[in-house]
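Late entry, evening session. Most of the bench is empty. Finally got around to the prediction I had been postponing all week. Sequence below, unchanged from the version circulated by S.P.
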Amino acid sequence: MTSRRQFIVSSVSVAALAIAGPALAGGEGRTGKFTGQSNHVTSGHAKLVRKNGKTFVELQSDFQFDGAPDPKVALGKNGFDSSTLMGKLLSNSGAQSYEVPTGVDVSGMNEVWIWCEQYNVPLGVAKLN
């Protein structure tokens, strides 16, 4: 027989999973804060979001970057992954959105990168929670 305490704890756990599950399903909903790389100043936040069946990396309104010749946005898992490149950085500051390439499993990714493709160096990275 289940005690009242076990029932309450189980009910609370199931409710917490129901609330958190959809927001984090497939890795979406995770955010990270940028730190600069290679002597570049990169700050602000990035977030993974799902819209209309597609996944996007959204750089938030607090995003700031000091500039470089060929900055691109990408994902990574404990390091930059060139197969996830989403295109040229649209602006050195402010909110912007990039569609994740079809076939990229974001649940395995734990970083958003600002990457200089011309010189093959990192410019900033946001570790996703």
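Two things to note before I forget:
The longest strand covers residues 121-128.
The CA atoms of residues 7 and 26 lie 29 Å apart.
Will write this up properly tomorrow.
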